[in-house]
Amino acid sequence: MRVTLFALVVSASLGGCRPCPDEEPLTSTDGGAVSCVQNTDCPRPSSVLVCGNAEDMTRDCIACTSNRCVRYRPGTCP
Predict the structure, then answer these.
(1) From the CA atom positions of the chain, what is the Rg in Å?
(2) pLDDT at 58
């Protein structure tokens, strides 16, 4: 019974929809990109996490990607 339940959960998670982050570069008041060296350099609202790893990017979080601040929001892969 447990094996069957596990197989159903795995097949449901592999098919159809899986989380994919939508990437939104943060911009400064003049419209330019916000520069950074590490994730904690980026400005963020108190309700938004600092991304700790790639898994966090499937949630609403801020990261320093290629020396620019980026907000990742949950989305669905096509």
Answers:
(1) 17
(2) 79
Unique residue bearing structure tokens 């990017």: 57
Residue 42 has pLDDT above 80, yes or no: yes
How far is residue 30's CA from residue 17's CA, in Å, rounded to a whole number? 37
Q: Are 24 and 32 in contact (CB under 8 A)?
A: no
Residue 6 lies in a domain: no
pTM of the model: 0.69
Total domain count for the chain? 1
Structural domain boundaries, residue 63: 19-73
At 18, give phi and psi (nearest 5°): -135, 150
Determine contact, residues 16/76, Cβ cutoff 8 Å: no
3-class DSSP state for residue 68? strand
Domain assignment present for residue 57? The answer is yes
- What pLDDT is stored for residue 25 in this prediction? 95
What is the pLDDT, as a whole number, of residue 11?
43
